[in-house]
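mind reviewing both lines:
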Amino acid sequence: MYQSDAQPLPNPRPERNLRFLAAGPLALIVQSLIALGLIVCGVSCSSSGSSTGSGPPPPPAALGGSNYGWYYLAPPCNREPYGVVYNYNTATATIDTQLQQMYTNGQRRLRIPIFHARGINSGTIMDSTGGNLALQFQTNLANLLAAVKAAGFVEIEVSFHPQSNNDPTQWTSFSDDYFQENWSLIQNLHPIIAGAGIPYHLDLLNEGIPPPGYAALLQYDQMLWNDYVAEFGSSDTLGFSIIADSAHVGQVSSVYGPSAFGNQGPPQLFDVHIYDETGNSFATAFNSLTSEGYQGVPWIIGEAFYNDAAEAAAQRAEANSTGQKVLYLTQWPLTSDESCSAAVNVAPPAEFSSYQAQDF
């Protein structure tokens, strides 16, 4: 889910209902390792030296965490100047502190978005002209991932969010020019991500599975998937994240099945995005993927409303009733009331207690 403040585009599909929205030297700056455990003394530690505490033990760490794309919002909800990757070199202390806060609050996995477009530098969106980012942005990404690792996080997903003319979800005809730019960017950033020393998966296009009738997007997906797997294999990618409605989930087999561009087969796990009507959306995704032959493929729930107790309970109930394996969940920084913005209204996404309580 994303809508640029800096570069609005005509879009007949409201975001509320349709959430489409060669690497240089790795300048990894390894942060001082942060202690992974907290020693808690109960409030009644005795004067005789007894270490027996009366407080309850802390809850177990969560499996998942957050989409971490912005470190600040200016009133009322302006996120655009405050992208985490874009600004890591100038907001290092703030971002590192937020990473530690999220980790302390139980989060263990993050989804890091890469926003890019030709000729745009917005504070979130980075110029990808020629199929690469500026050296400073490459360095920022490397150093951010080093900080994520140093804070104690155990896994990341990196998602690609092309904007403006680079965004194939908005194309009415296929553009080989912009396809090659997007593909080259993935190729050039791959060594930075793979070299960060933390387990990872790539989302090759955020919410990239098309509904029926989007021929240009379908061609983009089929070409990119087959090119990627031919070069890098399928073990470090979940392909394209999926909006959990029948129109999008029903096209998964069209993307990963045989096409004019190859037949590399499906990814080993899916990233499913579930917001509204949580129970029905989960069931729709499960039933459609099962009917297409993907039963047993594990999921990441890559986007969901921020720290939402009702959604967390509904997600867990559906996972239990269907038997669908959900590896973890990463919340999007947007509350379900969508106050002040229908895209992002929380920064940083520090809390995760509602999903943690449901073993996400």
